[in-house]
Design a protein that fits this description.
The complex is a heterotrimer. In chain A, helix 3 (about 60-95) runs parallel beside helix 7 (about 140-165). Chain A contains twelve helices and no strands. By secondary structure, chain A is an all-alpha fold. Chain B folds into two domains: about 1-20 and about 125-240 and about 300-330, D-Maltodextrin-Binding Protein, domain 2, CATH 3.40.190; about 25-120 and about 245-290, 3-Layer(aba) Sandwich (D-Maltodextrin-Binding Protein, domain 2). Chain B has helices at about 1-35, 45-60, 75-85, 95-105, 160-175, 180-190, 200-210, 220-230, 260-265, 270-280, 285-290, 310-315, 325-330; strands at about 35-45, 65-75, 90, 120-130, 150, 215-220, 235, 240-250, 280-285, 300. In chain B, helix 5 packs across helix 6 and helix 6 (about 180-190) packs parallel to helix 13 (about 325-330). Chain C has one domain (about 45-255): MetI-like fold (Orthogonal Bundle). Chain C has helices at about 1-30, 35-40, 45-80, 85-90, 95, 100-110, 120, 130-140, 145-155, 160-165, 170-200, 205-210, 220-230, 230-255. Chain C is about 75% helix and about 0% strand. Classes of the chains: A mainly alpha, B alpha/beta, C mainly alpha. Chains A and C meet through helix 1, helix 3, helix 4, helix 5 and helix 6 of A and helix 1, helix 3, helix 4, helix 5 and helix 6 of C.
């Protein structure tokens, strides 16, 4: 473990930074509370407006449970695919070089910038009944995964890229000069350094996939028990004047996300502990 | 030390944001307050019509110099926004229940329908949108249940406007002499022909235009508008269908503005009614309707024929026990 | 070697189907009838106001979330207090909320009868005006800068910062001259992601904006309005404008990078 800076002679004026640190923490906490926690509290309040009984009632409706299962499974699949493909894309964008690489790098974020209506429209035109490419996957569960892959594309890629760029190549080069094969070098030297970033991106991708609505709603078909995801079910509850049920399902999605995110955090913690 | 720097940077950013926000907020709210400014909140389909009507209104003596802010969106969403405090003087929505929610909140007066045309300004009817040339020969409600026919309809749970289509189907069965039980059985069978559930009318049309389905349940004004804008479809007017009536109401704040009252009055004048007709709607003023080329379905009925909106909303679309709610809920089971 | 080409073509194939062909389709649909119809569609007064509003909201969002994101990332990685684990998990939650629900939470808070509903009565407009739109956009983009900077901060380790401290640098100097340059790529990509997501936000902003034409209509709301009206050229053209902004952001970021190989 790296030694503590406290061992060095303390420079003049150490008291001020401590106060400053407290001020900074306070402001960060304040920002977080105002922007995130209060709206989440309002949502939770709404979901419990008519008591715990109605909360449980809302989230145990068979249609709600089916939508939840589909959403969570699809999001996990998408997160897993992104972990592998996103890393590969980041690798190619950083380590490889070919004509047009700059252009490809610059369009990775487009799924974020494009309004979900347009994304949905285009995906439906390209991969729907009248597909010019002959690929018709619209209104199936495959379409859900496809649309989710589209909107979560930038997450793992952009999380891994900066780490790859900062990576110290010395160990890789040393291993290679000692005769290690590229796959082994990647597995034992590069990958452990990338894992925190990959997990960061995966967590974001999973969270986004769970809540995605706009790009899914056109291409998925929204059939209860078959292709209806939670966000569409929640939208239906809102439109039928049942905001309490909508809030309740949203809280359940949040809790599931929280659980997955804590798991990922714990996994990373465990790996760090066992790596040293 | 670095944290003090960061902290003060945050404080500056936050202060700047707050300042900009309040400044921006104050600026944005300045417009509708002026008494010669009318805030129109409407559903999305009649946007073209209202744009033209506002121009025409500005040309009259009552409307001279009146400025408008216009907001268009899904009918239920607009009602919810006004209920949450969005400034509105005139609300023009797709169906009466959306205005009823505003009455319940005290934003629209209880007697809003005590006008000559019961506060309706435009009509339409439920129709079948089919592929160019109607290759599957769909003409009647019974044709929808032919084997292999796929029917697209917006989800009536998430789209208030789609409820017109479902009640058209139900009422048509009653007109054909079926009992209420048989009519409900028809609805059940109809939904077995529904492969996808788009969440809005526009999405349903996009889905149909992408090649899915053989027939789309929609309104006449939407079909006409789509054709006008280059979407290649035909439509069929079934013999039995419902009269879709779109209401307009003054809010309590609008009732205090002479300009808003004059505008609402203008909507049922021949000039405005003709503009509605040019945009695919049926005029509510019978005289103007006669001058148009709209054919009258032989067995046209209104929402009153099937019980009126208050009863229908509860019986068919109630969130837990509505007949249609339950049918849709078990669609994919 | 074979592996390198296989990887490259696998990645490009995936990107082609998922991203490049759809984006190409958008450009095609925009310019299907020529350049000028598309140009006219996005230079109407309503479109120009929408673009200005989008950029304004995005600028505020990026500024706030960058400062906050770097500060939070620093605390999460270098700090020592408890509760970091929970904050670490909470920070991603905004993404898990469906955009309509985000909008509704804000309406619930700031609307008539809401917890802060009284503000409107005192003339402080939050909902159906710029403030709510900024709040919604900040909400949905809050984790990006943090998540980009945290792995980089962990990766670079504390040795150089500690070395600088023992050489007598103050905390601020350490941050400015050692930490900040090292996390520069993380911050840059975080900014790019935040900007792209901010200009593309639709659902939440639609609910809290009131959709007032010429006043609270962002580019995404403009796209929606054109789509409702069957003006597909207008909708696609506006989407192209947004795509170009996102594209330009990455290009600008690349332009400011140091020469390859410089640094430590």
């Amino acid at each position: 473990m790296a030694s503590n800076a406290a061992a060095a002679p303390a420079p003049v004026g150490r008291a001020a930074p401590l106060a400053g640190r407290a001020l900074g923490r306070g402001l960060v906490a304040g920002y977080l509370t105002l922007i995130v926690l209060i709206p989440l509290a309002a949502l939770t309040w709404r979901s419990l407006e008519h008591g715990k009984g109605s909360f449980w009632d809302a989230v145990s409706q068979p249609e709600a449970v089916a939508a939840l299962k589909l959403t969570v499974v699809a999001s996990l699949v998408v997160a897993a695919i992104n972990a592998v493909v996103g890393t590969a894309i980041a690798w190619v964008l950083v380590r490889d070089s070919f004509v047009g690489k700059g252009v490809v790098n610059s369009v990775i974020d487009l799924p974020f910038a494009l309004p979900t209506i347009v994304a949905g429209l285009v995906l439906l035109t390209l991969y729907g009944p009248d597909s010019p490419l002959g690929i018709n996957i619209a209104f199936t569960r495959t379409a859900i995964v496809f649309a989710l892959l589209f909107v979560t594309l930038p997450f793992v890629v952009r999380a891994v890229q900066p780490v790859l760029l900062e990576l110290d190549r010395e160990m890789e080069e040393a291993a290679e000069s000692l005769g290690a094969r590229p796959l082994a070098v990647f597995r034992r030297i590069v990958f452990p350094n990338l894992l925190p970033a990959i997990l960061s991106g995966v967590a974001l991708a999973f969270a986004r996939a769970i809540g995605e609505f706009g790009s899914l709603v056109l291409i998925s078909g929204n059939l209860p028990y078959k292709t209806e995801v939670s966000s569409v079910y929640i939208f239906g509850r809102i439109q039928s004047q049942d905001p309490g049920a909508a809030a309740a399902m949203s809280v359940v999605l949040l809790l599931i996300s929280l659980a997955i995110l804590l798991l990922i955090g714990a996994f990373r913690h465990w790996r760090v502990k066992h790596a040293r | 030390m670095r944290v003090i720097w960061i902290g003060s940077a945050i404080a500056t950013a936050a202060a700047a944001t707050a300042a900009l926000a309040i400044f921006g907020g104050a600026a944005a709210s300045a417009a509708p307050q002026a008494s010669n400014s009318v805030a129109l909140v409407a559903y999305s389909t009649p946007k073209d019509a209202y744009t033209k009507i506002i121009s025409a209104f500005n040309g009259t003596s009552a409307g001279k110099g009146v400025s408008f802010t216009q907001s268009y969106g899904a009918s239920a969403d607009q009602a919810a926004a006004v209920a949450a405090g969005q400034p509105a003087d005139v609300v023009a929505l797709s169906l009466k229940p959306d205005i009823s929610t505003l009455v319940a909140k005290g934003i629209v007066a209880k007697n809003w329908q005590k006008t000559r045309y019961q506060a309706m300004v435009s009509d339409s009817i439920a129709v079948f949108i089919v592929r160019d040339g109607n290759p599957k020969h769909i003409h009647t409600w019974a044709d929808l249940l032919k084997p292999g026919i796929q029917v697209i309809t917006p989800n009536p749970i998430s789209s208030g406007g789609a409820r017109w289509d479902i009640m058209a189907a139900y009422g048509a069965q009653l007109k054909l002499g079926k009992t209420k039980k048989q009519a409900v059985a028809y609805l059940r069978k109809l939904f077995t022909h529904v492969p996808v559930l788009p969440t809005s009318a526009r999405e349903a049309l996009t889905t149909f235009a992408s090649g899915k389905g053989d027939v789309l349940l929609d309104y006449e004004n939407d079909a006409i508008f789509a054709n006008k804008k280059g979407v290649h479809t035909d439509f069929v007017r079934p013999k039995q269908t419902i009269l879709i009536e779109n209401p307009v109401a003054l809010t309590k704040s609008g009732a205090k503005k002479p300009a808003a009252k004059a505008f609402v009055k203008y909507l049922t004048t021949p000039a405005a009614q003709r503009i509605f007709a040019q945009n695919g709607y049926r005029p509510v003023v019978k005289k103007i309707l006669k001058q148009t080329a709209y054919p009258n379905p032989k067995q046209l009925f209104t929402i009153a024929y099937v019980g009126g909106w208050a009863k229908v909303e509860k019986q068919f679309f109630g969130p837990k026990n509505g007949i249609v709610t339950k049918i849709i809920s078990s669609l994919g089971k | 070697m074979l592996a390198r080409y296989a990887l490259r073509f696998g990645v490009l194939g995936y990107l082609a189907f998922l991203l490049l062909v759809p984006v190409g389709m958008i450009f095609y649909r925009t310019f299907e009838h020529g350049f000028w119809p598309a140009w006219h569609a996005v230079t109407t007064p309503a479109a120009r106001h929408a673009l200005w509003l989008t950029i304004l909201i995005a600028a505020i969002t990026v500024a706030c979330n960058t400062v906050f994101g770097v500060a939070l990332a620093h605390w999460l990685v270098r700090g020592r207090s408890r509760g970091r684990g929970l904050v670490n998990a909470i920070i991603d939650l905004p993404l898990a909320l469906s955009p309509v629900v985000v909008g509704l939470s804000l309406v619930f808070l700031y609307g008539t009868g809401g917890w802060f509903g009284g503000l409107a009565d005192h003339g402080i407009k939050i909902l159906f005006a710029l403030p709510a739109m900024v709040l919604a956009t900040i909400f949905v983009t809050i984790p990006f800068v943090v998540r980009e900077v945290v792995p980089v901060l962990r990766e670079i380790g504390t040795e150089q910062e500690q070395a600088a401290e023992t050489l007598g640098a103050s905390g601020f100097q350490v941050f400015r001259r050692v930490t900040l340059p090292a996390i520069r790529w993380g911050v840059a990509y975080g900014v790019v992601l935040t900007l792209a997501r901010a200009i593309g936000e639709f659902g939440a902003v639609s609910v809290v904006s009131g959709r007032i034409e010429g006043q609270t209509q962002t580019m995404t709301l403009f796209v929606s309005a054109q789509y409702e009206n069957f003006d597909y050229v207008g909708a696609y053209a506006a989407a192209v404008v947004l795509a170009l902004i996102a594209f330009a952001a990455v290009v600008v970021m690349k332009v400011f990078r140091p020469k390859e190989g410089a640094g430590y």
